[in-house]
Each structure stands twice: as structure tokens, then as C-alpha cells.
Design goal:
The protein is an alpha/beta fold. Helices cover 44% and strands 21% of the residues.
């Protein structure tokens, strides 16, 4: 019998030694083997590297805090696995978490990534389920804004179903597809890296599915509770919105996103928030310089897929049951979202 595929778990860490002492044992106890564990350390000042070595996992120290996307890509470059498991350090996992995530990937070569169920630390609140996309925030009161006018929400499901994205805290991705997609976009250093790569995965004709019985628990936000962490997180959200809207979304969303960001800068200046205004203006200037490259990439991506940003957005919306224009995207939408959902359920 052939050996089972190897999974490489990649954890980006920054001053998270206390989290690693809980996270690593629950990964080491996984029923699925072989499982390689790599801690990519963003120049921590605590004893994170010692903790990683104490548990006998691979430690990959970086000489500076590079953010999330760059560090994740360094982890994948060092990994030996056939699949990449992306998780956070402030988590623990059911012993069958990896086994549940990999099962659909082994059955269906078209799946790029599977996504698990995240609860809060006490297991009382569902934090992450099947990701759904919507324009209608009023219908989904817990929806979170991706860019102005576009939101996502979590839909509890009992079966394996398509999802518009997989969270980078509970994502198992196929290495071959990940490499074809050229990994995470490093211009999104902290936040939106999972939304962006999943958007491109669907555009390339791959699938993302949610696996309800892949269970984990997450101290959401624990990695950026400090003032420095909050600052990095806020900057990452702004960068992610600007990059995603410009590179992948229809022009109307890109225009609204830039206009909203400029309005935020104007508010900072009016309220004499000098530090916030300086950070925001620096990001706006930096990402304005990226606009020509983003637009070239956008044209190339959609030409290769034989569709448009509007049609692809409609396809992703239709997976949630929301009405689009009725024009599906080629490749990712053939068969239809409904047919794909039924097919995935039957395979699950």
C-alpha cells in the first residue's frame, strides 16, 4: 500500500510562547499522520523558539516581523508536505481535525482547500463556519464588511458544502494548487490573504469546501491584543481592502473602497489624529503606487479565466443563495453552484 500523503502544519508566531504550549500538543496528538509541524517565528522577543524545540517541531526563525502572508509563504517553501495546514498559534484542535479536513481533498482533486469549524475557547460560541458572501447586510446582522458594499457571514451547516473562502486559521490546502496560485499575495501582509487566494482559486476553477466535523477552538484576537498588535491589524485591514478591491473586484467596489479610505484620512486630519493620519496616508501612497500592477494582474487573471469581475462576483454570491445578474463565471461556475453543492454533498 502507498504511504498516506504528508500534511505540513504551518504556524506563524510572534511572541506567542504561551499559546504554543497549548497549540502544539493538540497538533502532535492528531490521529492523522504523517504530520509535519513548522513554527515560523516573526522575530519574537520571548521564548517561542525554545518552546517549539521543546516539543520537537521545526522552528523557522525570521530576522524581522514580516507580517503573515510573507511568513506563511516562507513556511510553505520549507515544508515537505503534500498539503499545507494553516492555523494560528492561539488555537487547540480536536484529535480528528486534520483527518476530517483531508478526507474531501483525497476524494476530489478539484478541491483547493477545506475549512473547519471554529468555536470560541470555551466551546460555547460558534466563531467560524461556512463562509458566505452577501451584499445585503440587513438580512445578515452578524455579517462583516470585506469592502464597502460587500460582506461575509458564517452559515452553520451539517454537511460538507462549498464556501466562498477558507479561514487561514483552519485551512488545509493542496500544495499543487497552492503553488499554481503562487501562494499568498505578500502585498497583503496581515489580513485578507485568505480571502484573496480563495477568490483566485475559485476563479481558476478550483473549489473550497467547509467541513463541519473538523473542529477547533480559537482565542480570536489573542495574537493582536497589545497596542502594537492592534496597530498592525488595523493597517493590515486597510491594505487588504485596497489590494483586494483593486486587484479582483468590479470597478465600482474598487472606487468605493478608495473613496472610503480617503474619507478616513480626511477624518483623521480634521480630528487632529496625527499618528493615525500619518499611517493611513503612508498606506494610501504605497498602495496607489501598486495600482498599475494590480490592474495588469486583474486583466490577466480574468482573461485567463474567460470571465469578468462582475460575473465572478455573481457566481460567488450565488453560492450563498443571493441573486446575482444570473451570468455565471466560466470554469468556476460550471457546473452551477447548486449542482456543485449537491455533488459535494454526495461525495461528503
Amino acid at each position: 500500500m502507498s504511504a498516506p500523503p504528508t500534511v505540513s502544519a504551518i504556524i506563524v508566531n510572534w511572541n506567542g510562547a504561551a499559546h504554543l504550549r497549548i497549540c502544539l500538543p493538540s497538533l502532535l496528538a492528531q490521529s492523522y499522520q504523517p504530520l509535519e509541524i513548522i513554527v515560523v517565528d516573526n522575530a519574537s522577543s520571548d521564548d517561542s523558539l525554545d518552546v517549539a524545540r521543546q516539543f520537537g517541531v521545526r522552528a523557522l526563525p525570521l530576522d524581522r516581523n514580516t507580517g503573515l502572508a510573507w511568513a506563511l509563504n516562507r513556511g510553505t517553501a520549507a515544508a515537505t508536505g503534500d498539503f499545507f495546514l494553516f492555523v494560528n498559534n492561539d488555537m487547540r484542535f480536536d484529535e480528528h481535525f486534520v483527518a476530517a479536513l483531508i478526507a474531501p481533498l483525497l476524494r476530489d482533486q478539484e478541491i483547493f482547500a477545506t475549512d473547519g469549524t471554529q468555536y470560541d475557547w470555551d466551546g460555547k460560541i460558534l466563531g467560524h463556519a461556512a463562509s458566505r458572501l452577501t451584499r445585503n447586510r440587513q438580512q445578515h446582522h452578524t455579517a462583516i464588511e470585506i469592502v464597502p458594499g460587500l460582506y461575509f457571514y458564517e452559515q452553520p451547516e451539517a454537511e460538507i458544502v462549498p464556501a466562498f473562502m477558507a479561514s487561514c486559521a483552519s485551512m488545509l490546502a493542496r500544495r499543487s494548487h497552492f503553488e499554481k496560485l503562487r501562494g499568498f499575495d505578500e502585498r497583503l501582509p496581515f489580513g485578507y490573504e485568505d480571502v484573496e487566494i480563495c477568490w483566485r482559486a475559485w476563479l481558476s476553477g478550483c473549489k473550497i469546501v467547509y467541513v463541519p466535523n473538523a473542529i477547533c477552538w480559537h482565542r480570536v484576537g489573542a495574537s493582536y491584543q497589545s497596542e502594537a498588535g492592534l496597530s498592525v491589524h488595523s493597517a493590515g485591514v486597510l491594505k487588504g481592502r485596497l489590494a483586494l478591491a483593486t486587484k479582483l473586484l468590479p470597478r465600482g467596489y474598487a472606487f468605493r473602497t478608495w473613496l472610503t479610505a480617503l474619507a478616513g484620512l480626511a477624518r483623521d486630519l480634521a480630528r487632529m489624529r496625527g499618528r493615525s493620519a500619518a499611517i493611513r496616508s503612508k498606506i494610501l501612497a504605497q498602495y496607489a503606487a501598486h495600482i498599475p500592477a494590480f490592474l495588469r494582474e486583474k486583466a490577466s487573471l480574468y482573461a485567463s479565466a474567460g470571465t469578468t469581475p462582475e460575473k465572478h462576483l455573481d457566481f460567488l454570491l450565488q453560492m450563498t443563495g443571493e441573486e446575482g445578474s444570473g451570468v455565471p463565471s466560466r470554469g468556476a461556475a460550471a457546473p452551477s453552484a447548486r449542482d456543485r453543492s449537491a455533488a459535494i454533498r454526495s461525495k461528503g
